[in-house]
Amino acid sequence: MNNTEHSTLVVSLEKNIQYLKEKYNHSTDLKIRLITVNDEVIRDGAVLYLDGITNTQTIQDNILTPLLRVIKFETIDALMTRHLLVADVAKVTTNEDVLDGLSKGKSLILIDGYKEGILADTADWQMRSVTEPDTQRSMKGSLIGFNEQLKVNVNIMRNSIQSHKLSIENLQVGNETKTDVSILYMDGFVDQQILEETRKRITNLDVTYLLEARVIEDALEGKKTFFPTVFTSERPDVTVSALYEGRVAILVNGIPYSLIVPTLFLHYFHQPDEYNTKSGRYGNRIMRLFSWLFSIILLGAYVTVVRFHQDWVPKHFAKIFFKESDTLLPVIVEILFVMLLFQLLTEASLRIPKSTVIIVSLIGAIVVGQTAVTAKLIHSITLIIVGLNFLSNISIAAGGLYGSVLTLRFVFLFLGYFFGLKGLLIGFILMIAYMASIRSLGVPYLAPFIPFHPKEMKDALFRGDLRKLINSKHTYPHKK
Questions:
Q1: What backbone phi and psi angles, to 5 degrees, belong to 106?
Q2: Which of the 8 DSSP states describes residue 473?
Q3: pTM surpassing 0.85?
Q4: What is the distance between the alpha carbons of residues 77 and 83, in angstroms, rounded to a whole number?
Q5: Each residue of 19-49: pLDDT tens digit?
Q6: What CA–CA distance (Å, rounded) separates 235 from 66?
Q7: Least confident of 133-147, 227-241, 293-307, 426-440
Q8: Is there a contact between 84 and 120 (Cβ–Cβ < 8 Å)?
Q9: Taking each helix axis from N to C terminus, what angle separates 402-437 and 331-351, rounded to the nearest 10 degrees?
Q10: What's the pLDDT score for residue 459?
Q11: Where exactly are the structural domains of the chain?
């Protein structure tokens, strides 16, 4: 075959089959079922599929059986429209489409003497069942979470939004391996500038393959920042709510969560419980905001007191805990040591089998909580402060904000250690100014506070009346 013939199917069935065998490196899971089909003359044909990702019963009942009963057909179109019993069929002429279809679980029908083939959807992917999401769990409300199959996730979204206004755009990302990506939005609700920018950034992606949604997150975030500007959620109800707010959701095949844009800083303090229960309407978001402040500033404030402001503590306690402390390590080394141990425990809990998590936790509690203090490696107050800092991270772990906290608490720790209270104050002001400069697809990150947008304050620090929230339309300020 020459280069031109390699790009399209040819009339020779034997050459087409040989080409596909070579492309799949004679892989044993490429199955070829030779058949004969009646036309004006008896023609040789073949059904090709990848074993393991196709439903062979469907192939047998809806493709092979009808083809073997054909008496006469005029064209490939006639064969496709009159005889095949598969719902999703398409005529193909290029080898690129053929290879892509076979890799997605479709079956290929080739007839000798025709430059065209037929791709029939016979995919049978293995998937885990729909389960409760691990993050953003709720006491009331939906218990359904996304799984790794894009079609299942779209099915869940269609079930939640039974309206023709739910629009889904299907794209493929990847030059070598094409991964299905769906952009979801509500027609009449979506911010058109956000939609256009989302579509542009995803279609401009130039990658060999796409296995993780982080690639799309990076493209949507644009300029690198400490703070996440793409919200991730395992919950379909959170995604549905975002669509009605005029935002855009992205689903990626193989990824059990959605990406939601634009994302404002305030969105990370909203949780499903606030909309499903009566309690927490006025206090939960404020509590999470203070938890975030605790997470980034507490360690810096502690070392500031130890080094520069021991007079803030009653003399008796200052003498016991600070002046007469006989621990081996300096306070900043103590903090870094305990943070390292906590991080190791967290990593171990995520990587080891679930049956051994309790054992690791007990060992960590003994080593960190008892032995390290008894051996006077670290001070008991340091252990308590770092423990509180660690616990304050839990309430803001969902959505992706946790990663920025890991960086910022080190920044404020060193600012407090070297520059004291003035360093913490200047650092906090610079951080707010930096956050005000961040954009999520052109939308200011600190909206509706900076710039101030009073109409959007109804669901900011406090959850407003649900009926008013449902019936009001959200708008987003755009700044380049």
A1: -90, 160
A2: P
A3: no
A4: 10
A5: 999 999 998 999 999 999 887 788 899 999 9
A6: 43
A7: 133-147
A8: yes
A9: 120
A10: 76
A11: 3-121, 150-263, 284-440
